[in-house]
Design brief:
By secondary structure, this protein is mainly alpha-helical. Helices cover 35% and strands 6% of the residues.
Amino acid sequence: MPQAPTHRLLLGLGLSALVLGSGCVGRPGLAPRAGAEPVGGQPAAPTTPLPIPAAPAAAPLPGAPGGSTLEPPVSPGPASPGSASPGSASPGFASSGSAASGSGSPGSGSSGPANAGPLSNLPPVSLPVLPGDPSLPAAAGLRYPLMPADPAAIAALLAALEPALRSPATPQEQLAVLGHQQQVIYRVLAYRQELAQQVRAQLPARWQGVFDHHIAARREFIAMHPPGRQRPAQLPAWRIIQPEPAEKLLGYYREAAAATGIPWQVLAAVNLVETGMGRIDGISVADARGPMQFLPSTWAEPGVGNGTDIRDPRSAIFGAARYLVRRGGLKDISKALWGYNNSDHYGRAVLHYAALLRDDPAAYAGLYHWQIHFVSSAGDLWLPVGYNEPRSIPVSLWLAKQPAGRPPAGSSGY
C-alpha cells in the first residue's frame, strides 16, 4: 500500500494549492501503486473508450457534461484508454498513439490550437475591455488583474475573454494580459462558491463547460491542503523565466504522445501544473527539478531520462511521458498520475485541464499565458517574469521590492 500523501508546498499559478503544481516525480519513500508497468513496457491494445462520468443533476459545478464519451484515437496506434478510479469525479480520458484529437500534428504546417477544436471556429471578436487601474505598479509589462465585484460583470468579462483567447485575430501581445485576467477570475471563483454559481448561471451555455473544468481543477488543488492551515510567509528560491514558445511546446507534447501513447493534453496539463509550462526554474523543497519536476534519482532510472538534460523542456516532456507509461498510464491514467503526486485530488485536477484541452484544443492559448501565483500569508501573490531569489525570502521583504505582486482588493480569493 502506498504511504499517506505528504504534499509539498509549492508553486502558485493554480498549480497546486500554492501554485498549480504540487507534484514531484519519484519522491523517495513512496511505494508505487500496484499494477505499475515496467519502464519501456508495451502499450496495451486499443479498447473501447470510457465515458466521462456524468455529474449529478443538482451539482452546481459538474466535472464534465453527462452522456458524452471519449472519441477513439484518430489513427491506429499503440493506444488504450485510461480510466478514472472507481467512484472518482475525474473526467475519463483515452490514451492515444496519435498526436492529438482534433488538431494538427507537429510539422504539418498547422497553426496549432488557435485553429483547432469545436470552439475555435469562432467569428472575429473584439478585444474585451478589462478593468484596470493605471496607478497600480507594473512588472514585466503587466499589472495584477482586477476582479469585478458584480456576478453579471464577471460573466460578461469571461464571455468576452474566452473567444478572444481562442481567436487567431487577437494580437500576440494581448494574449498575456487576457490570459492573466482569465486566470485570476478562475482562481478567485474557486474559493468563492456562491459567487461562482451566480457567475456560471449568467454565462452563455457554450462557455459553461469550460468554466466547470477550470473551477473543478482549481478546487481539487485547494482540497490538497487542510482548511485553516497556516499559509507560508516565505517565498521560494526560484527564478521565473519566459517559457519556450507555445508552438514549440505543443510540438513537444504531440511528439511525445505519438511516441508513447500518453495523450498530449495530459502532458501539457502536467507541465502546466508543475511549473507553469516551464516558467518556474528552481529546485523544489523535495529536490525535484526541471519543467516536469523530476527527482534526479528517478530521472536516472533506465527508460526515464535516457541520459538527457532534466532541465531541457523537450527531454523533460518525453521523460514524463515514458514515466507515465511505466506507471500504467496506457491502462489507467489516473493511477499513473498518482505517481507524480500521491493524491487523487492532483490526478483529477490534471485530468480536468487535459479534458478541457481535448474538448477544446484552442483553450491552450489561455493556459499557456497563465502567470505564476503563490498562495501566501499576504494573499495570492503574483510572481512575474524576472522574479529571481537565490534563497527563500520573507513575503514582506519581497513585496517591499516588488509591490506589483500584491493582489489588489478583491483579486485574491481568500
